[in-house]
């Protein structure tokens, strides 16, 4: 029986060095060896045509580590610290993957570039977190449950209650990152529900305002206040793209959908503003208009109503 060749022994030795270093990093310990020695081990394996072994071995180490992490997350699901545990697990995982990526630069640059199905090291870590954590043991469902509770808190906060903004920001950042090169995970798990809840909240809010004795000047002041408050809240936990969408929802629901009512309100509608040269109030309308989207022609028709009033 033939024994292993020198090349095989050296590759095995190289992998064992890397394996111990990766596991140390995953446990937030020093890898034990210098950068040059670990980089050389990666270089050796790739150069000796053992890139598959290196890549698959790394993937298996990450998967095995996430299995342990998953147990900790599952244990937190009914203990009141689920969101905090998820945030900590995510932070630890991303820090570890950044450090592992440093040693695996040569594999990223050569092996991954030559194998279209292979993911870059950091993206591999994101993909495995998504499959091993988010899509296992009801963790994703629990995350949706927590999301719904957080959205309820956001609704309450619009009525002056407090909310854990740091937890919300961590959740959003994690979901955005898990999409790797798109926003699908974030949109499915959070953004769509947030925008829907915002739409429903402001639909009820503006119906209450319009049902009272308020004139258009007061109503539009409330709209601008709502937009300003939403912008302040969004800046604390949302990315800019979602912030823009939130402000569009508020403007669409409160103004574009009720333009005719606002224009023709008796004793205080837009016609009244024009006739009495209420420049500040008219300026407010155009400030609000910049947030209105042109989907389904809503603001276009709204502008037509407004322009018609100007010409009358």
Automatic annotation (TrEMBL):
GO terms for biological process: ubiquitin-dependent protein catabolic process. SUPFAM superfamilies: Cullin repeat-like (SSF74788). Residues 15-294 form the Cullin N-terminal domain. This is Cullin N-terminal domain-containing protein. It holds the Pfam family Cullin. GO terms for molecular function: ubiquitin protein ligase binding. Transmembrane segments: none annotated. InterPro entries: Cullin (IPR045093), Cullin_N (IPR001373), Cullin_repeat-like_dom_sf (IPR016159). Coiled coil: none annotated. Belongs to the cullin family. It comes from the Eukaryota.
